[in-house]
Amino acid sequence: MIILATLIEAFATILHTLVNIYIWVVIIAALITFVRPDPYNPIVQILFRLTNPVYAFIRKFVPTLIGGVDLAPLIVVLVLQFVDLFAVKLLFALSNAL
């Protein structure tokens, strides 16, 4: 049982880290759009490739353009925070219960 509990705890820790890294990617990509970056910059391309598919998925279900401001990054961050607070804590609780 201790092996399973440790495995679940390790998975929860990795999920927490990945969620936080992606939140920072979304925040940085959103901030970069305010300064009109060079679209040929490799860092800008990586950030947009990591975020645009998620934004497109959200835009299929929710109109995100309000008053000229795209709220897709905010929605992504809120969903990721929910995943972090709910799923990760649930996994930690499960590993502690074992």
Automatic annotation (TrEMBL):
Pfam families: CCB3_YggT (PF02325)
Residues that span the membrane, as ranges: 12-35, 71-92
Keywords, ordered alphabetically: Membrane, Transmembrane, Transmembrane helix
The keyword Transmembrane helix is assigned to this record: yes
Keyword Nucleus: no
InterPro entries per the UniProt record, alphabetical: CCB3/YggT
GO annotations of cellular component type: membrane
Family: Belongs to the YggT family.
Protein name: YGGT family protein
Native source organism of the sequence: Sulfurospirillum deleyianum (strain ATCC 51133 / DSM 6946 / 5175)
